[in-house]
Amino acid sequence: MSGSEIAPGNPADAGPVKDAIMARLVRDANLADVPNKAAARANLQLRSMAQQDAAAVAITGGALDNVAIGGTSPAYGQFAQLDMVGDFTAPPTGDFWSDDGARVMRVNDRLLVGAAAANDAAKPNVEKDWLSELINWPVFNGTAAITSAFGTIALTVGSQTADLDPVAAGTTQTTIGVAAFAIANNPGTYPTGYYAAYGFYSEARVYPGTVSDSFAAEFEAINMSGTPNGTPTPYRELLVGSAQALRLGSGGGQGLDVDPAISALAIVPNGSTFNAGIVFAKDALTGADGTSGFGEAIAMGLGHLVSWYAEGDDNNGARAFYITSTIADADNAVSVQAQDGGLLFLQPDGNIGLAISTVAAADNGISITPAASGQAPALAAIGDGSNPNLALKARSGGRFELTCTTQNTAAAGAGGATPANAAAFMQVTVNNGVTTANYAIPLYAAS
Q1: CA geometry: angle at 69 spanning 63 and 73, to 5°?
Q2: Rounded to the nearest 5°, which phi and psi values hold at 355?
């Protein structure tokens, strides 16, 4: 008979069996009576997570596969570092607003993406990305920074009107690929309270040894409508279905209480200068190819000025010269055209009203001088040439036509005999630079 069996009629054999029963686990103790709990957990392959509070579980190592965190209700997870071996994908909901069911991802403080992630984002900045090695402030001061580690596009954004549903979006605003805002709203006085706000800033740098070009910005207008855009004017600067490369506006177009902006475009030195201000490529404008034809480079309305300034007494500049037009009727249009051989002033019908010719090695010219009250305007020959004469030439077969006041008789005191049969006399004043004398030129009726 074994030690765990009780022989009939022998109560003494029941002691060992009783002891064995008492040594077994008590159900109501819920494993609290296990003598070596650590060994028991090891036997059951339970690790440290089994001992953590359900509301404060820390996961170290391992993997979570096919597990939904907050799958049925919003939940938060805190990670010291999140390393992904696959793509991070958030399935679309088809909604835009959170109260309609859209999922909104929020990242606070700062976000560094791509090569910018190498930056320690600390102050002082010790571990830097490649851009911070060249320019110390963009990533250092950026709330979000994206730089490419492959020399490709760092950030691509886009939007299309085909997706715009004004009802669902809650707006009738036009489709915008990028919107940037800079708000200058800090109170203060100049200069201590002065800060500059830039809605957009871009740099183009070329370093020694490179043969590459660098552009701070390129704006391309691409008309794929199949219909050529018409020609804009200052009175209709935009047409329906137009493609426009750059549009500069003032006021925001939102019914705000605004004042005029100081300028639409300013070209300034900022440590260096430009070799040219605005350049139109020879074939960039419709109608002109740089060899022939005409293309409108700048269009302005009545009263618009092209101005030149002098420094002025207050060093703020004073307008010294300007060109403008006050022509209100296009039927009266005139133009100035420079061509090989001279400068033409054209009439409304395109005919030449005045031509100023060019002459090779010219050393004489013409001066037109207005006059103050009591003086006579002058048309004079000027220059250092040996011929001091002034020539007035009529076309072949033509004659001179002079309009002036005449007298029926010679001026009193005129010397010499009075010519017979003279119809009238034209009074002439001759100034030889020393003395001034008056003369009467007899005029005869044409035969």
Answers
A1: 175
A2: -125, 130
Q: What is the pLDDT of residue 91?
A: 87
- Asked if 444 and 425 touch (Cβ cutoff 8 Å), the reply is no
Contact yes or no for 346/336 (Cβ under 8 A): yes
| Among 70, 67, 66, 50, CA closest to 58 | 50
Q: Spell out where 244-334 has E strands.
A: 305-310, 318-324
Q: Is the bond into 124 cis (omega within 30 degrees of 0)?
A: yes
pLDDT at 370: 95
pLDDT (average), residues 201-209: 96
What is the torsional sign of CA 225, 227, 228, 231?
negative
Q: How confident is the model at residue 22 (pLDDT cuts 50, 70, 90)?
A: low
CB of 309 within 8 A of CB of 317? yes
Tokens representing 360 are 């090779």
The H or E element containing residue 218 is none
Rounded to a whole number of angstroms, the CA Rg of the chain reads 46
Best-predicted range by mean pLDDT among 31-40, 69-78, 87-96, 152-161? 152-161
- What is the Cα–Cα distance from 207 to 214, expressed in whole angstroms? 10
| Assigned token pair, 336 | 């100035």
How much of the chain exceeds pLDDT 90, in percent? 55
Half-sphere exposure of 136 (CA within 13 A, CB side): 5
pLDDT band at 75 (very low <50, low <70, confident <90, very high): low
Helices (H), ranges, 93-191: 130-134, 166-169
Q: Which two tokens stand for residue 56?
A: 């404060």
Residues 6+ apart with CB under 8 A from 440: 407, 410, 411, 414, 425, 426, 427, 428
Write the pLDDT tens digit of every residue in 151-178. Answer: 999 999 999 989 888 777 776 678 899 9
pTM higher than 0.85? no
Strands 378-383 and 406-407: unpaired
**Distance (Å, whole) CA 206 – CA 216:** 11
Q: What distance lies between CA 25 and its chain's CA centroid?
A: 80
* pLDDT higher than 60, residue 314: yes
3-class secondary-structure state, position 23 = helix
* Cα–Cα distance for residue pair 169/154, rounded to 1 Å: 28
Q: Rounded CA gap, 393 and 357, in Å?
A: 14
Residues 211-224: tens digit of each pLDDT? 999 999 999 999 99
**Antiparallel, parallel or unpaired: β 144-147 and 111-114:** parallel
Q: Are 327 and 313 in contact (CB under 8 A)?
A: no
CB contact at 8 A, 384 and 373? no
